[in-house]
Design a protein that fits this description.
Length: 250
């Protein structure tokens, strides 16, 4: 899949979370070219309007190894998020939009640090080889949880789970996801690089509604079963991790 298609699929994918929950009808305000329910077209149009100097970054699949390459990828992604913000403002009701904003909180936090924090950029470039070493494992970890998600989406038992169980299941699923990638980094990378990768994963998997997970994870999750999960939030984590695929290549 081409980098542009990866990014469009990712950005369109995160919109599916609130779209399946929202019944807001299109309104007459804002950008009249936006058609609610057709996020993919909005994103295609969005990227087709990129200036020539940014278009080249849609075709670059290798890991960015210079500050200018990071800036280019950040500019492209931020353009996509701008289009998404316009789409959600017009097509998604306020309460669902808050839920969406919380879902992409970790992703935006990571991009903010990568794109604007010079110290974080320097650390990222210092440890870039580690990301190359673990890229296949990163994809494997994400695919495993996507498989679990798919099974849960078709599970008739999921609706009957109470909130407490869902919360614990989410926390343990997030713990396992972070451990999957973190263990790969510990095996294949220098200790300092592995620590940096773990920090990146924690930023990406951060979600505002579940800031209390940490108190349960180390105590309960290392031996907990993760066959059942909070579908909405795990979907968010798996899709948000796709940011890494775009930033460091596919």
């Amino acid at each position: 899949m081409l980098p542009k298609q990866v990014l469009i699929c990712f950005l369109a994918g995160i919109l599916q979370i609130p779209l399946v929950l929202s019944d807001k009808q299109p309104d007459s305000s804002g950008n009249s070219s936006i058609v609610c329910g057709n996020a993919r077209k909005v994103l295609n149009d969005c990227f087709n309007n990129l200036p020539p100097e940014l278009l080249k970054f849609l075709s670059i699949s290798k890991i960015p190894v210079t500050k200018s390459e990071i800036v280019g990828k950040c500019d492209v992604f931020q353009q996509g998020m701008k289009c998404i913000d316009e789409y959600t403002k017009k097509c998604i009701e306020a309460e669902k939009r808050k839920l969406f904003d919380s879902t992409v909180f970790g992703a935006k936090s990571f991009l903010k640090k990568l794109c604007y924090d010079s110290h974080f950029q320097a650390d990222y470039l210092r440890h870039k080889e580690c990301f190359v070493f673990i890229e296949d494992d990163w994809q494997r970890c994400s695919s495993q949880f996507l498989t679990i998600l798919t099974e849960e989406l078709h599970s008739v038992d999921n609706r009957s789970k109470n909130i407490s169980n869902k919360f614990m299941q989410f926390c343990c699923s997030r713990y396992a996801y972070e451990q999957c990638i973190g263990n790969s980094a510990k095996i294949k990378c220098h200790k300092t690089s592995a620590n940096f990768v773990e920090n990146v994963v924690q930023i990406l998997s951060r979600e505002r509604h579940f800031h209390n997970c940490k108190r349960y994870e180390d105590l309960l999750c290392s031996s907990a079963e993760t066959n059942s999960i909070n579908v909405f939030v795990l979907y968010s984590i798996v899709v948000i991790s796709s940011i890494f695929t775009y930033i460091v290549g596919d």
